[in-house]
Amino acid sequence: MVVVLLAVLAAPIGVLYWAAQDGTGRLPEGTRIGGVDVGGLDRATAIDRLRSQIGAPLDQGVKVEVDDGTRKRIGASGAGVELNLEDVVDDAVAFGARGNFLLRGWRELTGAEVASKAPVRVEVDKDQVRRFVDRIAAEVEVAPKEAELAITLESVAVSDSSPGTELADPAGLTADIVRALRSPDSSRELTASTESVEPTVTQDSLFDANPTTVTVSRDGTTVRVFDRGELTTTYGVAVGSAEYPTPVGTYTVQTLQVNPA
Questions:
Q1: In what order do the strands lie in the sheet with 189-192?
Q2: pLDDT tens readout for residues 5-42
Q3: In 3D, which of 109, 85, 83, 86 has the Cα closest to residue 29?
Q4: What pLDDT digit, counting tens, does each position of 83-135 carry?
Q5: How many CA atoms, within 13 angstroms, populate the side-chain half-sphere of residue 228?
Q6: Closest Cα partner for 196 from 159, 146, 144, 147?
Q7: Considering all CA atoms of the chain, what is the largest pairwise distance in Å, rounded to the nearest integer?
């Protein structure tokens, strides 16, 4: 009777032991990694599934379209994207191996699930993404055109200024790209905008700095006075002799004297 009783007890224990051994190396049922169901899979199959459902979307990279029509793409490798799939799968396998063989065997036989959820850590090289954004910024940048003063003996004019263009919020675009690369569910297409850059030298500011211009014609012995580009006074003037000629060039008045001796 003792032998029979031991045999009866050993049979189910053996089944549980066999079931526990059979489940060794597999992820327990109910395991979800990064939202992907990998329960019951072996290590290699689980990694392949995660690469397909998480890694593949990330490998597509991110496309950026600027409102001036510029289109650029940064791939996962170009952004230094790295996934910790192997580590998180190994942790899940180790989690399933916890407990004695009786509990593990019973779980295998009954298909009981464990509440195991683990995130996938996606590393992105922010410096590489920042350099990518810098290249976009350099391509869309248009320097503003500054106003310039053009002087002849008979006219004073200022060329028109015009605004330039630069990428709006490069830091924000960098953060958006990093965020998209870290999430396989994020949109793979982003938009960016440009903004106007006003010139520092305009027609008004140039005339404010140079309100009065005087030209001297040596051949015509004529002085012309311009107020903000408008001719206001003309009069004759003596110029230097051939031995001591009046110098030619453009000069700025340093001092003024009223009725000098």
A1: 71-74, 62-66, 189-192
A2: 444 444 454 443 333 334 345 777 777 777 778 777 88
A3: 109
A4: 777 777 777 666 655 443 334 443 444 444 455 566 667 788 999 999 999 99
A5: 6
A6: 144
A7: 143
Strand partners, 63: 73, 189
| Digit-coded pLDDT (tens) for 126-159 | 999 999 999 999 999 999 999 999 999 999 999 9
Distance of CA 199 to the CA centre of its chain: 26
Distances (CA, A) of 255 to 190, 192, 258: 59, 52, 10
Q: CA 116: distance to chain centroid?
A: 35
DSSP 222: E
Question: How far from each other are the two terminal CA atoms of the chain, in whole angstroms?
Answer: 143
Q: Which two tokens stand for residue 14?
A: 């053996």
Provide the 8-state DSSP code for 145: B
Domain boundaries, given as residue ranges, for the chain: 2-59+84-121, 127-204, 211-236
CA-CA-CA-CA dihedral for 42, 45, 49, 51, to nearest 10: 110
Residue 132, exposed/middle/buried by CB under 10 A (0-12, 13-18, 19+)? buried
Asked if 64 and 190 touch (Cβ cutoff 8 Å), the reply is yes
Q: Are 134 and 125 in contact (CB under 8 A)?
A: no
How many angstroms separate the CA atoms of 203 and 49, rounded?
Answer: 65
Of 86, 169, 177, 88, the C-alpha closest to 124 is 177
Nearest to 59 by CA among 84, 78, 40, 34: 78
Please state, in angstroms and rounded to a whole number, the distance separating the CA atoms of residues 180 and 132.
15
Do 213 and 156 meet the contact criterion of CB atoms below 8 Å apart? yes
Output Rg (C-alpha) for the chain, integer angstroms. Answer: 40
